[in-house]
Amino acid sequence: MTVGIAVLGGEEKIEEPVATGISEDEKEEEETEVAEPEEEGTSEESTYTYEDFKGTYALFEGEPYNSPIGLGIMVIGDDSYRSFNHSDVYMTSTILNKTIEGNVLTLHSKSGTEQFKLRYEGDKKIMHYGQSLYSMSSQDLQNSL
C-alpha cells in the first residue's frame, strides 16, 4: 500500500502545471513569426518584363502539345504583334505603347488596345488572350503544321 500512496503522491505532482521555459506569450510570438514569412511569400508577385511575353504561341484543338494546332497563332515581337491562322489570314499591329502590370501586358496600337495575361507552367509560357495559347519554338511550330 505504500506503493499505492507513492503513486498517488506522484499523480498529484503531475497535475500541477509544469514550467516548460516558454510562456504562452512566447509561444504566440513563435507562431506569428512562422506564419509571417509564409504570408509574405504568397503575396509577392513575380516581376514580368516585356521579354517574358515575347514569343510564339499556339492554340491547340485539344490537350496542349499533344493535339493538332487550332486556328490561332500569335507572335509577339520587339515592336509588333501578329496573329494568324491556317488560312494565311493574318493581322500585324505595330506597338505604339506598352505597359505591364503584374502578369498583364497591355499593348496599344493603331488597331486598338489588347491585353495579354501570362503565366508559367514549368518552362512553358501560357498566354491568355480570349483563349489560352501555349508557347512554342519556331521549329516546333513548323513541325506541327
Keywords:
disordered N terminus, 145 residues, single chain, 41% strand, alpha+beta, 8-stranded antiparallel barrel, Lipocalin
Q: What is the CA–CA distance across the termini?
A: 92 Å
Structural class category: alpha+beta
Strand order of the largest sheet: 1-2-3-4-5-6-7-8
Q: What percent of residues adopt helix (DSSP H or I)? A: 25-40%
Largest sheet: 8 strands, antiparallel, barrel
Mean pLDDT: 75
The CATH architecture classification of the domain at 50-144 is Beta Barrel
Q: Cα-atom Rg, whole angstroms?
A: 30 Å
Count of helical regions: 4
**Strand and helix order:** HHHEEEEEEEEH
Task: Please name the CATH topology of the domain at 50-144.
Answer: Lipocalin
Biased composition (Acidic residues): 23-43
Region (Disordered): 1-47
What would you note in describing this structure?
The protein has helices spanning 2-15, 24-43, 50-53, 138-144, and strands at 55-60, 69-76, 80-84, 90-101, 104-109, 112-121, 124-129, 131-136. The protein is 31% helix and 41% strand. By secondary structure, the protein is an alpha+beta fold. The protein has a domain at 50-144: Lipocalin (Beta Barrel). The longest helix is centred in the N-terminal third of the chain and has 20 residues, at 24-43. An 8-stranded antiparallel barrel has the order 1-2-3-4-5-6-7-8. Strand 6 and strand 7 (124-129) form a beta hairpin. The termini are far apart. It is built from 4 helices and 8 strands. 11% of the residues are buried.
